[in-house]
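BUG: 3D viewer hangs when loading the predicted structure for this chain

Environment: internal workstation, default settings.
Expected: structure renders.
Actual: progress bar stalls at 90%.

Input used:
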Amino acid sequence: MDYLKIDNIYTKLLKIQNILNENLAIIAKMYGFNSTELMIFLDIKTHPNTDLNTLCDRLGLKKSAASKALNKLILDKIIVKDVDPIDHRKVSLRHVELPDQNVCKEETLLTTFKGITEHECSLDKINESLDDLIKILK
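Structure tokens produced before the viewer hung:
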């Protein structure tokens, strides 16, 4: 096993995570969200009628962090929490269409990956490498 190569990959992943977080924070601020709130909003907008567990699994968030951000979005009337009338433990989350909240996932992704057109790269190769990395880490 080549420790230096693994260390290099790890360092690059940390740098990527930092850059993604910085880009996401800039976009979130434009819409009056923090990064976690924006991620949750976009996920619920993309996957309406989802629940907290599924949302946390998809986004890789801890339930406590997601709950805190979700409660703010609910208080701000951006997200609605529908409780199942028969089984009150079942909760479904959906977003509220607001005329001034035209936030879309595609725009957020294109802004986050704004340099993608400036560098020649193979998105397929990047995707394959990331799939390999996920398999290795599991």
